[in-house]
Amino acid sequence: MQRLKTLSFSLVAVALVAGCSPKPAAKTDAPPTTGKEAARQEAGKLVTELMSPTFTAEQQGRILNMGYFMAASSLCSDLEVDAAKMGRAVEAVLALDPAGETPAEKQHKHDAVIMFLGMSSGAMIGSHIEDKAVFCEDAAKVKGGAPDTHLFTAGPPSAPSTAPVPEEAAKP
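Request: output the structure for the sequence above.
Response:
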């Protein structure tokens, strides 16, 4: 019996050592991402990891996309999310779920979509608050596309953005 315990311990130790050995780094020609872009990628990775137990990769992408439009409407005074378009986008995410879910499961998924929309838009707002002008220019270009390719209202927003302005941008 002692021999069996010793052998088992030895095998576990070898497996742990083998598993802890350094893995060769993936070879890429691009330098590693640093600074704000690395922080943006990390925030996106965290949000998608949190979504993964509940949503497929396609659903996660759609939720992040909707979060982008919500962030743009919060940061950019000339952009506003169209509530009807957003509602259809949420329903499209939920339509990707398998048939046969109970009403409680459907409600859970709906609540999760709303929660992750808030998380993704908040992460994007935080990631772009310091480069708000560039972010808003890019979002305005998206709004300039065909109306069925974005979630913005067609006309001017009904109310100005209440997003905070970074101190650097507020100074003359």
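The mean pLDDT is 76.
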